[in-house]
Amino acid sequence: MNIFSMAFFNKTIGLFIIIFGALYIFSVNNMSTQGYVLQDLKSKLNQLNIKNEENELHIMALESLQYISARAKELKMVKADNIEYFTSNYDVVAKK
């Protein structure tokens, strides 16, 4: 009876070792896969940050006074002089 219980104990321990070994390999594989995905996402984030900075510089260049002045000359716009504003003594501007 002692031999059978020892054999059963050995088989049970061996089964636990195999099960926990498989679970360990699965968890290590899962963590390494998640690490790769995280690294890939960080790389994409860095690329998007660089692209965002480039776009902000492009926007600032397009909003610059020098660009707007040159673009106004291309469109043959002229400077507004002698501006007269309408003033009224009435509170109502438009009637129905």
Global outline? rod-shaped
Secondary-structure-based class equals mainly alpha
Our count of domains comes out at 1
Q: What ranges have pLDDT less than 50 throughout 5 or more consecutive residues?
A: none
Order of helices and strands: HH
Number of helices: 2
Calculate the terminal CA-CA distance, rounded to whole Å: 109 Å
- Measured as a percent range, the helix fraction is over 70%
Write a short abstract of this structure.
The chain has 96 residues and is mostly helical. The protein has helices at 2-62, 65-74.
Describe this structure in words.
The chain is an all-alpha fold and 96 residues long. The chain has one domain. The protein contains two helices and no strands. The chain has helices spanning 2-62, 65-74. It is rod-shaped. The chain starts with a helix and ends in a 22-residue tail after the last helix. The model has no long low-confidence stretch (mean pLDDT 87).
